[in-house]
Amino acid sequence: MQKGLKGIIAAETAISHIDGDEGKLIYRGYEINELNKYNFEEVAYLLWHGKFATDKELKHTKEELRKNRDLDQHLIEILTSLPTNMDMMSVLRTVISASGTSDFNWKPTISQAMKLTSIIPTIIAYRKRNTEGLPFIPPRQDLSHVENYLYMLNGIIPNPAQVKALESYMILTLEHGMNASTFSARVTASTESDLVSAITSAIGTMKGPLHGGAPSGVIDLLNEIALVGDAERVIRKKLDQKEKLMGFGHRVYKTHDPRSIALKETLLELVGQDEWLDLAIEVEEIAVKLLEEYKPGRSLYTNVEFYAAAIMKSIHLDPSLFTPTFTASRIVGWTAHVLEQAEDNTIYRPQSAYVGKLKNKQV
Fold it and tell me: Which residues are catalytic?
């Protein structure tokens, strides 16, 4: 028996593949580094449809995502009535659940997937500004998916370097195999429940710190290095004290995290345009060298959280929005898996091993 179903194959999928030994992540047959030149909408289409869009298909997809950005009035009323001490992931879970009208009856469709993908950034931005006592900034139809998200958060057209960095991060986190939240979505979908119910399950799972935890440790590391002004001194001190260096190493990837490599390639194109992105590149080079010195043969490289933290710092995103932003990208992978589950469905019904006591039978 494998606790937590570790190593157990629970489904066949054509959506993505992870090779932890070789450090590869594949979306629909394409290695992740091949996808860095595309935009969010193009890669989302690939995951939903299994192929890249033609110009006409891509135009339609962008139009659908844009026209679905506005929230229905009943969702706005729910958003503004929720307790101020409710965290953003709980807000997302509640509002997405409340969107489950008759429009989302079984069987799930790509149109439904696009609707949920469109409204999650709006929910996050609306809630953030509402709790800060600021007016809501309506979505703009002339901005891309990622650009519009940043615009709604802050009310200004974002720096192109910041858009490029965040878009790369979101593309690289759209999908990552049969992780806990994806499995949760597929289990719910396997009962022939609707798409909204499956995504509500996934969001509830993502909320857990063992799955969707924010890279706050990396933020602390970068802040400390920026304050001290000497990356090598800070990192050596931590390694001398046997502290874990946050943002390095991964449970699945035994070598380089391919998402981290792809993010770094993007950030190298942006050198000189943002101080936090520049700092991250400098810190990685020093940290990898010192980790090999202190822990030879361990092959500890940056994971996707390392550069994600730098990007979040760059765009001035509050740590409370890290996991919700992760959710705004992973919604594409979740919906793709629900659609795939519906195509050849069998309800999930694993067994458990009873380890309790047996009462003696009375003679």
Answer: 250, 305
